[in-house]
Specification:
about 180 residues; mainly beta; 6-stranded antiparallel sheet; 11 strands; about 10% helix
Amino acid sequence: MGEKADLTVRTLQAELRGVMLPMGLELDRVTIQGEGLGIERDPIKFNLPTPGSLEVAITDLALQAFLEKKAPGGLRDFFVQLSDGQVHVHATGRFIIEVRAAAICNLRIQDGKQLFVDLEKVDVMGVGAKRLVQNQLDSVNPVFDVAELPVDATLTSVEIGGGMLIVKGTVAPKQEEESDGK
């Protein structure tokens, strides 16, 4: 990037609503904030001298709709509740007979880039079926990947409660790599 940007922005704050990711999960809100954004026009390049902040909000209804579309293991009729720091999932499945299953899950950030669902406890007709349900979860993991965002981001924390999942992190604009054949 050149010595001086064509345009300097003291403060950047962008809020995107209803962001549908290619994998089918709808983000309720994506908020990006930063200081001292420099923009060059030809070719267009961005420079953020210090990391900005990222906050992604996902509702329990969005997770429920995502699971209905994915139907892992043929499960259906999902009910998702985000409360008390955990993800509570209820679903109907067919295992010789039709049964209702309930699971309690935790969220884990992997390598600062992906959000995974880990099974803590599962109950199917009073019987634990952790391995069976974990296999179904593995088919939808990761549930969120920063590679699907238009900025370079690192995830730092997850908060769950009140029907919302809030993922926080840091962000910098994606830089186009210059080719050697210039």
